[in-house]
Design brief:
667 residues; OB fold (Dihydrolipoamide Acetyltransferase, E2P); Rossmann fold; six-stranded parallel sheet; 40% helix; globular
Amino acid sequence: MQLTSLKGISEKRAKDFAKLGIATTAGLIRYFPRAYLDMTNRVSVREVLHNDMALIACTLVSVEPVRNKGRFKMVRALLEQGPDMFTAVWFNMPYVATRLKPGEYLFYGRVQNYYDRISLVNPTFEKLDAQKKLKGLVPVYPLKAGVAQWVVRDAVQRALAVERFESVIPPELIQKYRLSPLAEAFRCIHAPESLAAMRRAADRIALEEYFTLIAAFKLIKGDKGEARLRRYNVTEREVADFEKRFPFRFTLGQQAAVRAVYDDLNGATRMNRLLQGDVGSGKTAVALTGIFMAVRSGFQAVYLSPTEVLAAQNFALLREKFPEYRVGYLSGTSTAKEKRELKAAVEAGEIEILCGTHAVLQGDVRFKDLAFCVCDEQHRFGVAQRNSLSEKGEGVDVLVMSATPIPRTLSLIFYGDLDVTTIPDKPIERKEVSTAVIPARKYEDMLQWIRTEVRRGRQAYFVCPKIEDDEGEVTSVTELYEKLRGLLPDVRLALLHGKMKEKEKAGTMSAFKRKEFDALVSTTVIEVGVDVPDATVMVIYNAERFGLSQLHQLRGRVGRGSEKSYCFLLVGSESETAAERLNILKNTTDGFKLAEKDLELRGSGDFLGTRQSGKFMSEIKNLRYSSETIFLAKKLVDEAFERRLNFEEIRDAAMRKYESLKDVVLN
């Protein structure tokens, strides 16, 4: 049903909801709260730690008119709580100025405390008297448009009353496993009586979504027993000679991975293999060895990278390692003439190896005899994109690679139909990165030390955490950039964030690699796999807000050269859980062990739902659910397929899920 069918939702209000990505009642009830307010847990603004979320009752004294500050439109309010005066600021939300009047309010938002100057950033708010009717746990929804919390709450309750809830899970399995009704779970998630009830509801909703997702994977991943159409004639001696082109000896893990690829290419069925390994484990060297097996046998190969920065880096590497073969480069920024000439050469077979970005996937890119595909950072490409690449030749052998550690238990589910090879070790030459938690009192000392490192020719990263509001994310990194410019006036700083255009991001990263900048101030969009050998310092702000796996990935951006490297963790709020997690990171360099611990500490909701996975499974964004939910979904799918229960209905739902996910990428 369209939103306008609900009482109180006008055409104008529907347009506001559309800015939140909501167009129907079904979409509205799947717009889950990002938090819950305990109406009894109001705090003193003085007691809140920097960057923590808080519920604060206070008096609104005044509101300044909207004004411009650089690219941002800002609204500022002066607030009072007892003897304390503080401010609230909203970026790119000019409508706030018209909705606030002096009086008593309840604000909920992120508190920042810089040098004893307290402010709330982009908080939600309601008149205090309106809150008196709200009891217990009250949902807080992520808002980016001119819609108040109470408007969303009322609309959700009306949608729950009219929406139909039909489970894809067969009734026989619902009864067998005593699953609660789906309608009950949706009602509870929007108005829980307790946190325990909310968690049970989240598990039930997540179970429904993962059931259809895993069913889709089961249907679309293809038959790994597809018969081989071509024969490779490269010898083991030739492969061993090619490995000598690298300035290091392959580790046992790399040797085992090369053997697995060689056996696949000489087996009876087409290769469909996932190669996963920790940061710096040498996956690229294995992939290039596989490419050699193809071109030495007289076939063509393609190397697909997710960004122009990575593609250009891989192109240079391919030309270095394959001087006797012609290597082509295709990207979105190639000129029309370059594209036309390159495509003709690829189709004629004159180019043996093609390296590029998404431009390689275009329909007019045709190969004479494509045999081997490498998909780098596979999580950055949608299923449909990877399939379209392998379909550019008959019986193409596919090697997809991932440096994002996924817990072994979850990889069994999501990669169950792929042959998986893991490189567990790292080259001996790879230096460990020293990791330390830096207390606030040592912050300026750390900056002075970094200045000294820069003078020695080293480079540094300063990374901000991603927060829920996209505008707040850009504001946060821009604010840090300006502060560091003042604190480090002699250090050449560059700014990088997700709102920049792809070409602008690529240009900034390339300039940083060329040492035109000494330090990069960035959000978490720092490219996985980008190799900047002189970058030896990683500073991560509010490290307690990251998962262990993401911290490990960020740490992996340094330590790529011959010099000793360092990772500094800055903590915005102290807690026993944060201290435990950061100590684990300090003492562990194995990304797969960290991923398992991350799953244990945070649960699947964080690991696969929001912070780790971008748009992936956006239907259950903000839910916090247990990993057991995913395993149960896999069990139910296997049983449903084995018993052919409601197969047509499951297939239809699974294919709809596939259509919504096939072009989605992970962060």
